[in-house]
Write a structure and sequence with these properties.
The chain is an alpha/beta fold. About 35% of the residues lie in helices and about 25% in strands. It folds into two domains: about 1-100 and about 180-190 and about 210-275, 3-Layer(aba) Sandwich (Rossmann fold), CATH 3.40.50; about 110-175, no CATH class. A six-stranded mixed sheet has the order 6-7-8-3-9-10, sandwiched between helices. Strands 2-1-4-5 form a four-stranded antiparallel sheet, covered by helices on one side. The longest helix is centred in the C-terminal third of the chain and has 16 residues, at about 190-205. It is globular, with a radius of gyration of 19 Å. The structure holds adenosine-5'-triphosphate and magnesium ion. It comes from Paraburkholderia rhizosphaerae.
Length: about 280
């Protein structure tokens, strides 16, 4: 992948090799909050075994879109097709039952409980009625499958690093084997090594055949792991890019400006490298 290839190229080998059937398809999805149009006419396709990054400036509508797919908000218009049929995601339980799992930015973990308890939080009863030993084995198996670095599943979450907490939240979301997993800012507030660890984890989730939607403000992380990059701007689609797009192209689509401080700086850096 080179810096100066254009966005017209087809997705790279890694996505076409693993990308499976169409899992999620949005057509004409809009959402109004009173007079505020948070989303207008959104189109989005996500396949099995694919990481789609959802990027955009503050207020672009990313979280609103994720909340619609998580069953937290209802769209004002448009259709959502999931697993081949049109669905109504009337509440979070419905979304989860259909196979849409969400890791919200605050992770919603219990600090004072251990890793096993957090992975099974709220799901200790049927259909996953398991005893402590079985839950521990299941937690270990899940974390091992993800090659996750959690030293001890009996450690309380309060003692874990930010990356390890993100890992626990992701493992928890995989418990019911969802078709789609959505991650809201999974690398925000993480250091370099922890970010790399979480990006590796996202790749492993993708390689297991799950469809992944990841929201991020970090273009480096997005390009490192995404198969496609969907840009939202002021609540509308503003282009689909591939990881070999330049920073300037992405920033232009995100901000709506063809020329701005960030792209000028990137251009200057590129010019210095070229001489
Ligand atoms: N519950 C709500 N009630 C009213 N307006 C809302 C609500 N939720 C979001 N909005 C508005 O919808 C628009 C999109 O917000 P959203 O939170 O989806 O943006 P975002 O892309 O996630 O931004 P950020 O990067 O800052 O998290 C904003 O104008 C926001 O003020
Ligand atoms: Mg948001």
């Amino acid at each position: 992948m080179t810096e100066n290839s254009t966005t017209t190229v087809e997705p790279g080998a890694r996505s076409s090799a693993t990308r499976g059937e169409l899992v999620l398809s949005l057509r004409g999805v809009s959402k109004h909050f009173g007079a505020v149009s948070a989303l207008t006419d959104i189109e989005l396709d996500v396949h099995a075994g694919e990481v789609v990054a959802l990027v955009g400036d503050n207020g672009a509508g990313k979280s609103t879109l994720v909340k619609i797919l998580a069953g937290v908000h209802q769209p004002s218009a448009g259709t959502i097709t999931f697993g081949g049929r049109e669905v109504t995601l009337s509440d979070p339980g419905t979304a989860l039952d259909l196979g849409i799992a969400t890791v919200f930015q605050d992770l919603a973990l219990c600090e004072n409980l251990d890793v096993v308890a957090n992975i099974f939080l709220g799901r200790e009863l049927s259909p996953l009625r398991l005893d402590e030993v079985s839950m521990e084995v299941r937690a270990w198996t899940l974390l091992n499958e993800l090659s996750a670095r959690i030293p001890n599943v009996r450690d309380v979450v309060a003692s874990l690093s930010g990356g390890q907490r993100q890992t626990v939240a992701i493992a928890r979301s995989l418990l019911l084997d969802p078709k789609l997993i959505m991650l809201d800012e999974p690398t925000a507030a993480l250091g370099v090594a922890q970010t790399a660890e979480v990006l590796n984890l996202i790749e492993r989730v993708r390689d297991r055949g799950h469809a992944v939607i990841m929201i991020s403000h970090n273009m480096e992380d997005v390009r490192a792991v995404a198969d496609r990059i969907v840009v939202l701007r002021l609540g509308r689609n503003n282009g689909v890019f591939y990881p070999d797009s330049s920073n300037a192209e992405l920033v232009a689509a995100i901000t709506g400006a063809t020329e701005n401080a960030v792209s000028r700086r990137a251009g200057r850096r590129q010019a210095q490298q070229d001489v």
